[in-house]
Amino acid sequence: MKRRKFFASAAAAPAAGALLAQQPAPPAAPVQGGPGPFGRPMEVPKLETAIADDVASFKPKFFSPAQYGSLARLAEILMPTAEGAVGAREAKAAEFLDFLIGQSLADRQQVYLKGLDALNAAAKQKHQKTFDAVTEAQALELMSPLRKPWTYEPSSDPLTRFLQTAKADVRTATQNSKEFSQNAGSGGARRVGGVGQYWYPLD
Amino acid sequence: MAQQEYDVLIVGSGASGGMAAHTLTKLGLKCVMVEAGPLVDFDRVRALKPVYELPYRGFGKPGKLAHVFQANEFNANQWVDEKEAPYTHDPKNPYNWVRVRMVGGKSLFWARMSFRLSDYEFKAKDHDGFGENWPISYADLAPFYDRVDPIFRVSGRNEGLKQLPDGKFVPDESPDTEATLRIAKAGQPFGMTVTKIRRSLGTGGLASSRNLLLPDAIATGNLTLVPNAVAREISVDKNTGKVNGLHFVERHSKREMHIKAKVVVVAASCLESTRLLLNSKLANSSGALGNYLMDQAYIGNSVVALVPEAKNGKAKRGMVGGSGYIPRFANLKSGKEKNYIRGCAFDFSTGGTPDAKFFPAWGKELEEMQMAARGASFSATAMGDVLPRFENKVEIDKTVVDAYGIPVLHFDCKYTDNEMDMMKDSVTTLAEVCRKAGFEVISTNDKPFPPGYSIHELGTCRMGNDPKKSVLNAYNQSHDIKNLFVVDGSSFVTAGTQNPTMTICALSMRASEYLADKLSKKEI
């Protein structure tokens, strides 16, 4: 019941970040009902369902173990788990990005592959370890390119470009996860990760 | 069943086609309208979903709609599928062609910004010497704007600005915020003025051909609307040389069909109209068809700033919030005050929260920075006037066809130094104005997105008095074929900075009344 109330209240509010500015939606029609056999109204109970992430795990397979380990570490620093809230770890952001980037076009894949390799190379050069194994202070120092102002023209430095891309992607992957959306401490229902007007394929 | 011959065939059901149908049917003409897409039942095709139920958590399916930056995973299916209807361009010169195929067209989704062109656009050559004038002036079109505004219920505030003519507005009497007044004051030395955004209110939450134009046309009993009809080629009577109908493909069955009419009005949206004419090998004795492609150079978040007094939740009532519009402010005197010609306009909003990317931080620090900035932002979108150049063009790509076997368009279009210099100067100027207003500028961007991004493609079938330089006359009528009209944005001679829908509607209404008059006099 709580979940239904959440959807109802979210439907009345703009889906921040989910939809571009466009025409306001007319009121949604009831899902149930309609004529059934012999012209009688048909009542179909609405069933609660789960999503795949609720019941199954996903084995990362796009990135190498070293790349994936560093991405997971980076994700947890970019979106840490605040007390009582959901961060990148709980949202399985790195796992999701392994899937997403694995499906993506080559140029986007290269941003990640070159960037993660550059991050690990920098970590090895300075600390003789891959990024996932360095200390917190060392990790923050290696992420210093993120202190540069963001520019619309992608940086020519593979590490800077990757870190800026990953910052945005990890954030979205986390905030749009079910874990984040349904965790009151994350504010998921109020911010990103809310409800939007989905268009089915047109006939 | 015998095939009926209609008075007028209208290709396309968006703003321009809808206005043609609205006008022609009320004048008693029997019209048939074909639309490439379906008549969408909004209750059936849309549903509220949480983002986590989408397969890609809102990122969208990678590679789908690569040119539609406006697409997201929620709305991906509302845009034309580029596999079904592809187009080509040199990878070095991308063009973002954003299309909608359903009854109502893009008017279902537009931002509703409702401005008029001025004689700075209609008589641009007189002002700065570049290109051609339109064959009409603002005075010719003003009476039609005056009739379009009430249909769309345009809200706004009359200001008496020469570069942004007033309208028949639903008065916007909301007070300007303190932030807006500060921008207006700081912008004065730069020739800037600030006004309310002029926006179509429509009715029932929608301001579209679908609800404002087509229902009235159908109610006359004079409009037959045919969805799912993909135009292939306009047919010609070999004896008279006049057009006499349309070959189209029924979208579901892919049956090849033909429909007959005395007059053809092409309103398929700018580039689909030109594609149809090019594929039909019609109306191009001038050689101008497909050329002079324009749009508006577009930069979202061109200037992002913070209003310091509004940070940390300290905004007082009336300090920030809402939106505003800065009409073109450059080259309004001699036309050549800058190192470029023409100019740029901005729309802006205040009171939001800047995106996380604008803060050089992450984790808790980022959250705190965003929290402090919540409700304190100023963000402006730049829209620059793109010059009409012959070399910016579309042509038929003979090597590629769409899902219906119809040859597709190849784009050859790029911005030049004039657009780049204009955007750079305009953004620099606005950033300076923001600083003088006491705002903290946190990001600027003066590089426009690829051509097409604004979804304001214009030109390629332009009007003109000289049949050797233009495709259409002053009434959107083909110079070559008197019973052929093109009434959408393809007819524009200059682009301007103003969103074009109101001008498209006014032109369509004007052309339709001319058409009806000439048809009644048997002069077509």
Helix-strand layout with pairing:
The complex is a heterodimer of chains A (203) and B (524).
Chain A: H1 2-12, H2 52-55, H3 65-78, H4 93-103, H5 106-127, H6 136-142, H7 158-175, H8 178-181, E1 195-199
Helix pairs in contact in A: 3-4, 3-5, 4-7, 5-7
Chain B: E1 5-11, H1 15-26, E2 31-34, H2 42-45, E3 46-50, E4 88-89, H3 119-122, H4 124-128, H5 138-152, E5 154-156, E6 170-171, H6 178-187, E7 199-200, H7 209-212, H8 214-219, E8 223-226, E9 229-236, E10 243-250, E11 256-266, H9 270-280, E12 296-306, E13 323-326, E14 344-352, H10 363-373, E15 377-385, E16 393-401, E17 407-412, H11 417-436, E18 440-444, E19 484-486, H12 501-520
Parallel strand pairs in B: 1-2, 1-11, 2-8, 4-17, 5-6, 11-19
Antiparallel strand pairs in B: 5-7, 9-10, 10-11, 12-15, 12-18, 13-14, 14-15, 16-17
Helix pairs in contact in B: 1-12, 5-12, 6-11
What does this structure look like?
The complex is a heterodimer of chains A (203) and B (524). With 203 residues, chain A is mostly helical. Chain A contains 8 helices and 1 strand. Chain B is of the alpha/beta class. Chain B contains 12 helices and 19 strands. In chain B, the strands form 4 sheets. In chain B, strands 1, 2, 8, 9, 10, 11 and 19 form a 7-stranded mixed β-sheet that branches. Chain B has a 5-stranded antiparallel β-sheet with strand order 13-14-15-12-18, with helices on one face. In chain B, helix 1 runs parallel beside helix 12 (501-520), helix 5 (138-152) packs across helix 12 (501-520) and helix 6 packs across helix 11 (417-436).
Observed structural traits:
heterodimer; A: 203 residues; mainly alpha; 8 helices; 45% helix; disordered N terminus; B: 524 residues; alpha/beta; seven-stranded mixed beta sheet; five-stranded antiparallel beta sheet
